[in-house]
Amino acid sequence: MRIFILKFIGLCLFIFVIFSSVSSAHSSKKAVQNKTPVKFINYIFAGRVNPLIESVNNSASVSYSAYNLSYGEYNQCIYFKPCSGSPSNKYLDTEDGFLPDFGLNFSFTFLHFADKIHYDYANGTTSYTERNPPMGTDNDIIYNISNRLGYMLAITHNFVVTPYIKASKYIWNRVILPSYPLISYREKYRTYYWQLGLIAEYALTSNFLLKISGGIGYTFDPRMTAYFNTPAHFSLGSKMVYGFKLDNYYLFMKHIYLRYGIAYRRMKFGYSPLYSGFIYEPSSVTNTFLYTVGIGYAF
């Protein structure tokens, strides 16, 4: 994980250098000669950014995504004995599939602060595979809601970097339908998580914007409910969560833009507390990819 974090930081620095180089190539010699170090610092904190960047950051949009879910429940035999699984299997069960996802976004700026409120809802069926018996299906309903607050730093007129902090809530309802004659089983996962990250925005033309972002953080107060005759509630361990996102915006009318992109997130849940030497819910990992298209209105 330390190696991954270092690679992530290196990638951010690489993107920063590339965008800075491209921006410098498009700036005039006169602007460079007249911009002293003090003026440059003042420009970063007070400079006016490209109108396209301002428009995208003051807008409302709707989106549709193909939500690719990949879930794995770790074999508790790796951590505890006695256990019911085999130490040779990394996962006790897995879940994979695509879900249709619908999203809403609202962004606005005040001075150089940028805020974004996001909500999305996914609902569909995935393939569920267990160690024994082999497989079944899973009906999923997933909610994500978040609020991201950042401060826009105008490196140049066309290039803006925004460090941010983000708070989110994640809810996953799943109904497992086994392929063997047993009653279906319902679970609900819920967690909050925070992230620190960086956004890089570059206006390639007057109507085409590239946006790259990435963040890393931690879950807090994760919980699970197993619905038996009487619901059973379990607290889960807090784990790291991180993700990346690439978006392209095309302003094809004065106030209307098209957005398309890809996003990735990796989230883990820690195992539930020990009970008589056993754990009910092992540690798990959820990887998600979102392939998104959307349309927005810029204020």
Descriptive overview:
- With 299 residues, the chain is of the alpha+beta class.
- It has one domain (2-298): Lipocalin (Beta Barrel).
- 16% of the residues lie in helices and 61% in strands.
- The protein contains 4 helices and 14 strands.
- It has helices at 2-26, 29-34, 37-46, 51-56, and strands at 59-74, 91-110, 113-130, 135-151, 153-154, 159-178, 185-203, 208-227, 232-235, 240-251, 256-269, 274-275, 278-279, 284-298.
- Strands 1-2-3-4-6-7-8-10-11-14 form a 10-stranded antiparallel beta barrel. A two-stranded antiparallel sheet has the order 12-13.
- It is elongated.
Features:
4 helices; two-stranded antiparallel ribbon; about 300 residues; Lipocalin; single chain; disordered N terminus; about 60% strand; 10-stranded antiparallel β-barrel; alpha+beta; elongated; about 15% helix
Q: What is the percentage of strand-forming residues?
A: over 45%
Task: Compute the number of structural domains.
Answer: 1
Contiguous runs where pLDDT drops below 50 for at least 5 residues: 1-9, 13-35
Task: Describe the main β-sheet briefly.
Answer: 10 strands, antiparallel, barrel
CATH architecture: Beta Barrel
Concise synopsis of the structure shown:
16% of the residues lie in helices and 61% in strands.
Helix-strand layout with pairing:
Layout: H1 2-26, H2 29-34, H3 37-46, H4 51-56, E1 59-74, E2 91-110, E3 113-130, E4 135-151, E5 153-154, E6 159-178, E7 185-203, E8 208-227, E9 232-235, E10 240-251, E11 256-269, E12 274-275, E13 278-279, E14 284-298
Antiparallel strand pairs: 1-2, 1-14, 2-3, 3-4, 4-6, 5-6, 6-7, 7-8, 8-9, 8-10, 10-11, 11-14, 12-13
